[in-house]
Amino acid sequence: MLKNKIYYNLKPLVPRRLQIAIRSWLVLRKRRKCADVWPIDEAAKRKPEGWAGWPGGKRFALVLTHDVDTAKGHANCDKLMQLEMEMGFNSSFNFVAERYPVSAELREQLTANGFEVGVHGLYHDGKYYESREIFMSRALKINRYLKEWNSVGFRSPAMQCNLDWIHDLNIEYDASTFDTDPFEPEPDGVRTIFPFCKNGDTAGNSYIELPYTLPQDFTLFVLMKGKNIDIWKRKLDWIAKNGGMALLITHPDYMNFGGEKTGHEEYPVEYYKKFLEYIKQKYEGQYWQALPREVVSFWPDDYKNKPRRPAKRICMLAYTFYEVDGRVKRYAEALAQRGDRVDVVSLRREGQAGHGVINGVNVYRIQERVLDEKGKLSYLTKLMRFFIKS
Question: What is the pTM of this model?
Fold first, then answer.
C-alpha cells in the first residue's frame, strides 16, 4: 500500500511515455522470475466443491469485458461494439464515471444491443483503498452511478481491491481480481479460474467475484510489446481443458481502429479480432458466451453458500533435501493442491538447480550439504548458515 501511494502521488509528475518505458522494463525483468505462475498457474484449475458444470453442458465459459479508461477509449466504444456484433459476440463496457463525460446515448445503445454497462470507479487514480474514509466517500457516489446506469457490476481502477470493503457497493458482482497477474500494482491473485462468492455480514450483502483469467491487452501489447496473440491462445486452451471461465479485459483506449501506424500505447484491433476468430473456429459450440450479470444469475445458490477460502502465501524452511523427504513433500503438496502458493527453502545436492517447481510447489535450494560433520559444532555451524541464508 505504501509503495502504491508513493507511485500514484508521483505519477502525475512523470511524462506518460517515461512511465510506460519504466513499467515495460520492470515487467520484462519480472516476467522471467514468474514463469511458474504466469500466464498459467496450475493451482488455479481446482474446481469449486460440488461443481456440476456450465449451462447446457458447455466446456467452458467465455466472458468479454472492456475497461474504458479515457475519453479516447469512450470514442472507440461504438466501433468495438460493431466489431463484436458482426462476429456474433457481446460484452460489458466499464466506464470511469467522472474522468470524462460518459454518454447516456452510448450506454442506451449498448444495452439495447444486448451489451452490459458497469462502473469502473469515479476516477482512475489508484487511491480508493488508502483509507476507509476515502472508500466510503467514493462508495456513496459509485452507488448513485450504479443506480442511474442500471448497473449491477463494479471493477476497481488499477485492479486494486479490498473485497471486504466492496460490500459497501450495491452490486451483484465485482470484477477487480485475477487468477494470476504478477505485474499488477497488487500482484496477489485469487488463484482460481472460476467465480466465487464473497459473503457479507448479512444475507443480502453478498456478491459474486469474477476474476479475469486471460492476460490484459495492455500488459501483452503495450508493456511487453507483443506482436501476436500466442499467449492468449495458450491460456484459453488451458482454461478450456480445465473447464473454467475465460474472462478477458481489453481496452478500446489502446486499440488502433484506423489501420495507420500504431502509437506507443496502441496495438492493431486485428489482434482482438483474430482472437475472437480463433475462439469461434476452434471451440464453436463448446463455450457458453455470457455477460457478467448472466454468470451471476447462473451461479447456483449451493456455490454461493460455500465461499471460497482465500489463497495463502506459505513459506516452509526445511534443512533437508526436499525431493527425498516424504514428510515435507506431503505437507507442501497438500497445501498447493488446495490452492495456496507454497515456497519451500531447502538444501541442494551438487549439480542441482537453485530453483524448481515440483507438483505446484516452488522449491528454492539455497545451500549444498555434504554429510561430513565431525561434531555438534560443525553441524550447528552449517545449520546457522542455512538459517541466515533463509
Answer: 0.82
